[in-house]
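User: Could you go from structure to sequence for me? I need the amino acid at each position, not a summary. Structure tokens:
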């Protein structure tokens, strides 16, 4: 691991995706309803169009019936011309209000029209088809040259020798029909939208009564998992979710009770152990420092072990007491204006003597300027010593421990950054996210409770600071403490 303390370390930012039952439910329901309504709308409008067009076609076919064709063919077979038969037919035609009749000769010219207006020669697809079809009949839906949309049926008129002499063409305007179909389609669409709105509102009600309580349950369980055992879920409905809320509330109460009993037990045991341990350590030190001229080597070694192990147990007891305070929310700070760097130097003075005695080299770089913060001096020393102690425990014999302090700006506020690096075994990528957790030990071969770093992190947090850990396995670990200052220090 690089020992360059001026390097910037990457802060991991976790982004939370907007996912969940609510989104999936709404997408599924609304998507499905819209799809079904679209299919239903297309089918309904198609059926309505078919119905109206069939009704119009029946009217046109009725006007262009076999009897009309037979009328012309009989007259022609009796020696009358198509023109005279057409004039007589138009005069007696009774459906002029609903339909228009054209009599067309075999050249495609309109001889006469039932509306009384002359008709210029124009394209008539149904006429062409009827003249070509074996049954002599064809239908056309489209626009005339004047822009009017019509439905037309054309039937061929033949003489007795089966010669095609002309055709009768019956038409009716369908613009109004199309408008009626459009109006009905709009009405259907409006009805579908109302139904869709009702479905959406009903689903929103479902979400409010089902999904929202589930979200509240989820949030409450997360807080409980984080250690907030005072959280309770409001029971809004006497249903399965209400039963779930009751169960979680009961569980939280039982966990809180058990947790309190555990913390009380730890606190009591720690206090009970502290006094005899202090006595054992004190008497051990007294005996070690006393006249040992008549004491054999084994006894001397035994006294040293007693003092060392008593000191270790004393530290463990203090960690348990801090843990108990941390768990019960009783960990408080005695705040005062403190020179953080002065406290760091004092801690280093004590630590360096021990480190050198054990064969380690300690290098540090600390600005010689006041660094005032509103802090608890004893707790800060505890933080520094705990991190330094970890650096020593996990370092290789003869390696270096590096300490550097510098000032920084964060979100417009003044901070001091204290970096402590070792050249030890490091922490694996799998263990690194968990090392701040209570009782978690990445390296079980090293003695320790697994509490110290959790307590250290909490103390830093109580000072409105934060602690970063960067590590590479088999290369070393860098712990960086960021603490807010009352004002920017002068660096003259």
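Assistant: Here is the amino acid at each position, in order:
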């Amino acid at each position: 691991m690089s020992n360059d303390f001026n390097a910037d370390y990457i802060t991991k930012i976790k982004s939370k995706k907007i996912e969940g039952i609510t989104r999936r439910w709404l997408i599924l329901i609304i998507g499905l309803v819209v799809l079904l309504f679209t299919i239903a709308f297309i089918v309904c409008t198609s059926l309505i169009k078919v119905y109206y067009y069939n009704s119009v076609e029946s009217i046109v076919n009725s006007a262009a019936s076999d009897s009309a064709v037979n009328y012309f063919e009989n007259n022609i077979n009796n020696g009358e011309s198509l023109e005279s038969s057409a004039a007589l037919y138009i005069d007696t035609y009774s459906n002029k209000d609903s339909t228009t009749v054209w009599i067309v000769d075999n050249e495609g010219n309109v001889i006469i029209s039932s509306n009384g207006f002359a008709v210029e020669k124009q394209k008539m697809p149904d006429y062409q088809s009827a003249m070509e079809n074996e049954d002599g009949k064809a239908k056309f839906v489209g626009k005339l040259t004047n822009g009017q949309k019509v439905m037309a049926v054309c039937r061929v008129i033949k003489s007795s020798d089966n010669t095609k002499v002309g055709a009768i063409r019956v038409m009716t305007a369908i613009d109004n029909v199309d408008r009626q179909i459009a109006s009905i389609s709009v009405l259907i669409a409006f009805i579908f939208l109302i139904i869709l709105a009702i479905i959406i509102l009903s689903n929103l009600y479902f979400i409010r009564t089902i999904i929202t309580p589930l979200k509240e349950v989820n949030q409450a369980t997360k807080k409980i998992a984080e250690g907030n055992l005072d959280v309770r879920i409001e029971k809004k409905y006497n249903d399965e979710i209400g039963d779930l809320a009751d169960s979680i509330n009961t569980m939280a109460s039982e966990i809180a009770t058990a947790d309190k009993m555990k913390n009380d037990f730890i606190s009591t045991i720690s206090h009970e152990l502290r006094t005899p341990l202090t006595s054992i350590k004190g008497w051990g030190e007294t005996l070690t420092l006393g006249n040992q001229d008549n004491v054999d080597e084994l006894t001397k070694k035994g006294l040293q072990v007693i003092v060392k192990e008593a000191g270790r147990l004393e530290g463990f007891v203090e960690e348990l007491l801090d843990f108990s305070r941390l768990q019960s929310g009783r960990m408080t700070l005695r705040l005062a204006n403190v020179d953080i760097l002065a406290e760091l130097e004092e801690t280093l003075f004590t630590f360096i003597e021990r480190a050198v005695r054990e064969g380690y080299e300690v290098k540090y770089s600390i600005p010689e300027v006041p660094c005032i913060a509103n802090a608890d001096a004893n707790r800060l020393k505890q933080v520094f010593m705990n991190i330094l102690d970890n650096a020593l425990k996990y370092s290789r014999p003869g390696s270096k421990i590096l300490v550097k302090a510098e000032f920084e700006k964060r979100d417009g506020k003044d901070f001091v950054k204290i970096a402590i690096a070792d050249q030890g075994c490091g922490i694996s990528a799998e263990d690194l996210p968990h090392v701040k957790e209570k009782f978690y030990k990445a390296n079980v071969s090293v003695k320790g409770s697994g509490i110290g770093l959790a307590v250290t992190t909490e103390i830093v947090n109580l000072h409105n600071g934060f602690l970063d850990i960067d590590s590479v396995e088999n290369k070393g670990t860098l712990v960086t403490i960021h603490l807010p200052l009352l004002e920017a220090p002068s660096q003259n």
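One structural detail worth keeping in mind: The longest strand covers residues 400-410.
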